[in-house]
Amino acid sequence: MKTKLGERDDLLSMVTHEIKNPLTSITGFTMFAEDAVKNHNDALALESLQIVRSEAQRVLRLAEDLLDIAQVTAGRFSVRKESVNLESIVRSIAARYETMTGRRIEVIVTDEFPYVVGDAVRLGQVIENLVSNATKYSPDAMPIRITLQCTDCRVTVCVWNNGPQIPPKQLPCIFERFSRLPNGRAVKGNGLGLYISRQIVELHGGTIDVLSSEGEGTCFTIELPRPIN
After folding, report:
1. Considering 55, 74, 93, which residue would you say is the last residue of a domain?
2. pTM of structure
């Protein structure tokens, strides 16, 4: 049985990898085509190319998530351990999403925020997933707030949005595979982002949790060990 499951996971990993490569090429060449079309002021062609790129990026994200899931299942999911400027990662992602969405994203640092030990790419993946979800599930007119704090032994990143309350009965399963919110059916996604985020945070020796209440919004909190100086 274990052999069959291993073969299945290896096949999933291989197929996902083969899908990912052409999608990356499609996304890149579409961006070149968009630049060329802009010079001819062809609004319809430009809009069509932007839709193609958006859909290719969506499927590419799915392929990347499935590849991560295959690695988790096979016990091969790992993170690097190096000095990481998490504040810089948060500010960079916030600035990019402000530009992409036109939303106001506030970054609040309450203390002198230290470097952490971990994988910069994977931690960025977690922050981006939380910020992306916040933009999808909250009103456009409301800001998103990211707060960075630290204590003697922990560093904390909180991503808050003023979207609808997550039903209390769904909170325990929000980090499970393919978990989707009832009010999020119109939002594109595959229900894997939070599951993968939890795997990444736990591999860093940390925790990820969520609080949600009517009128107060939703806050996802990441806690990571603070390095000993």
Report:
1. 74
2. 0.75
